[in-house]
Amino acid sequence: MEKEIIKFFEKDRFAHFVGIELTKVGAGFAETSLDLSEKHMNGLDIVQGGAIFTLADFAFAAATNSNGLATVGINSNITYFKAPKGKKITAVAKETSAGNKICGCDVDVLDEDGTLIAKFSGTGYRKGLKIDFSTGILTKMK
Length: 142
Prior knowledge:
By secondary structure, this protein is of the alpha+beta class. It is 22% helix and 47% strand. It contains three helices and seven strands. Strands 1, 2, 3, 4, 5, 6 and 7 form a seven-stranded antiparallel sheet that branches. The mean pLDDT is 96.
């Protein structure tokens, strides 16, 4: 099932454009990574906060949709602690609440050394649609 979910999320054109990869996914869990390059740097020559946010948001999306319930973000917050060191950052998402309509998820963003560089918290809304990961088809739940 993990391979089907990863394949489904390859359709996220923005994550693909930025260079984000979904590396692991399971029930209420996801891990994403981003190999950093010049295009991810801001004017101060450090990783742009939006790149870090997008990585965390994509991990949130994969974790909260992993159970096959189509979920969209309705609120999110991120706190940046320090600039990452190294050439790769990773986001690890864990669903903390999984209701029928509302869910919550925490995401830790780590640099190459495993140092916490940011913490993301998101709230999702379940749209009442079931995802068939093998076909990508959404169907209305009964």
